[in-house]
Amino acid sequence: MEEPIIEISDLSFKYPQQKREALSHLDLTVTSGEWVAVIGHNGSGKSTLAKLVDGLLVPETGTVKIAGVSLTSETLWDIRKNIGMVFQNPDNQFVGANVEEDVAFGLENQGVPREQMIERVRSALESVGMWDFAQHEPARLSGGQKQRVALAGVIALRPKIIIMDEATSMLDPEGRKEIIQLIKNLNQKNGFTVISITHDIEEASLAERVVVIDDGVLVQNDKPENVFQRGAALIESGLDIPFSEKLKNEIKNYGIEVPQEYLTEKGMVDWLCQFISKK
Amino acid sequence: MNKVILGRYIPGKSIIHRLDPRSKLILSFYFIVVIFLANNWQTYALLSFFTIMSVFMSGVSFSFFLKGVRPLIWLILFTVLLQVFFSRGGTVYWQFGPLSLTSSGVINGSYVFCRFVLIIFMSTLLTLTTAPLEIADAMESLMGPLKKIKVPVYEISLMLSIALRFVPTLMDETEKIMNAQRSRGVNFGEGSIVQQIKSVIPLLIPLFVSSFNRAEDLATAMEARGYRGGEGRTKYRVHFWRLNDTLACVVFAFLTVILLGLRNW
Predict the structure, then answer these.
(1) Residue A102 CB neighbour total at 10 angstroms
(2) What is the C-alpha to C-alpha distance for residues A103 and A122, in angstroms, rounded to an integer?
(3) Closest Cα partner for B224 from A95, A1, A180, A13?
(4) For the ABC transporter domain, which residue ranges apply (chain A) (predicted)?
(5) Residue B233: which of A109, A153, A154 has the nearest Cβ?
(6) Which of A80, A94, A138 sits opposite B226 (nearest CB)?
(7) What is the pLDDT of residues B27-62, one digit of tens each?
(8) What is the DSSP annotation of A162-191?
(9) Burial environment of residue B69 by CB neighbours within 10 A (0 to 12, 13 to 18, 19 or more)
(10) Angle at A103 between CA A102 and CA A109, to 5 degrees
(11) Which CATH architecture has domain A4-240?
(12) What's the confidence (pLDDT) of residue A2?
């Protein structure tokens, strides 16, 4: 489990029309089966990173290695088979005319025989709980359902890595929770490596590791508790802090001594109970 | 926008719904050609009977077919009146200058009317009982031989199916932009023609720009899912030619034979 699946070294990228580098000299390693959240404010280079990893963009300098193979124009299509991506806008990534056809699209591209395709489409849709909607057209689905279909399309391809490029940002809280729960299952039960690029701090706090990017530079790469401990600094770089941190700050304003380290929601509840019972 | 009958598909489980889209497409075109062979009232009666039977078999409410005729009614009436008043020959009932009402005029007029209505009914039947995507599939399959002369059949069909899939999405978006502009004071469909055309611009440009964004997103998503062009792809959606399709062709062949017999009555 400890072998690295993504190795990025000295990665830089600049968009043609812009002066500033979108990413500069980034190094990052992700081990197999890990869930990494990438956070950063708008325009910090998160999505660019995802596209570079999938070979949708060509870097200026540096290398990307996926499962030991470095990404070049020759290895591109083989590497892409290891990576499944879910994008932000649920409408714009729906290729098929209905749910099952959309899930089958990636399989069709790989030339999977039809009998096998039927089986894989079905099991992928069942795993996201959308099999009952197999015949539905995209216009009849909600945003969250469309994202679940997009996720099924990725699962059907059986990649090693799933990249969620702000996949929950256009969803309502309910749909967001469902998708996050699905990712969690995929990561823990099925052993997929997950990279989730997100604005949602609650989603990031569930990850095993959080990578903070600011203006194309990797600022921090650590466990969520260590990242969120920097509360004020995070807010300064245009990010948010989890609800439990906010609560802690509010309590602090009343002159009550609070623990320095980051507390999860459960940790916060425990601390509050202890604090009250001590009184 | 609800008046558009084209591409309006009514899901159902009738015999006609279950036919292979290829056979439906071929036979509908064939029928339109056959209509032009009819030349007397017996042949028109036969074709009308046949069309009405097909409509009944589809199980789709008759009002949908009338809706299909409605947008073309002025064209039909205009053509019919032209036929009625400008044809010569047969008994003359009434005459005024170049206008004349003759028996052959009345007959020709009613033939033209029948022809129009039958063509519209048959094509409506095709679009009502076949999902747009099935029609796209049928076209791809029928265009297959054109691959030999380097026609990009696969690309055309992918374009068609993506276009069809985005029709409702873009309709929704049009509605949204219209409402957004209305809430900022744009009046659609009011004032002089020049003003009306000008008021379309704040609708058209945002729609155009967002289509570009959509296209870009879609292309990225397709590429990320391994799309590399038509080569080496398998197909998830396939159609099977069944016994019913062969039977339908046989029925049409019979129809043609009877029609040719009645033609020279």
Answers:
(1) 25
(2) 9
(3) A95
(4) 6-240
(5) A109
(6) A80
(7) 888 988 888 888 888 888 888 988 888 888 888 888
(8) EEEESTTTTS-HHHHHHHHHHHHHHHHTS-
(9) middle
(10) 85
(11) 3-Layer(aba) Sandwich (3.40)
(12) 61
Tokens read off for B192? 């002089």
A193-205 pLDDT, tens per residue? 999 998 888 788 8
Exposed/middle/buried for residue B240 (C-beta within 10 Å: 0-12, 13-18, 19+)? exposed
Residue type, B10: I
Q: What is the dihedral of CA A13, A17, A19, A23, to 10 degrees?
A: -20
Please give the helix or strand (H or E) that residue B158 lies within, else none: helix B153-182
A77-110 pLDDT tens trace: 888 888 899 999 888 888 888 898 899 999 988 8
- Among A95, A137, A142, A161, which would you mutate to test the B interface (most chain B Cβ atoms within 10 Å of its Cβ)? A95
A69 or A121, higher pLDDT: A121
**Within 10 A of A29 (CB to CB), how many other CB atoms are there?**
14
A31 forms beta bridges with: A4
Q: Which residues of A are less than 8 Å from B162 in CB distance?
A: 95
The predicted pLDDT at position B8 comes to 66
For the record, the structure tokens of B172 come out as 């929704």
Q: Hey, where are the domains in chain A?
A: 4-240, 242-278
For A223-234, the pLDDT digits (tens) are 888 888 777 777
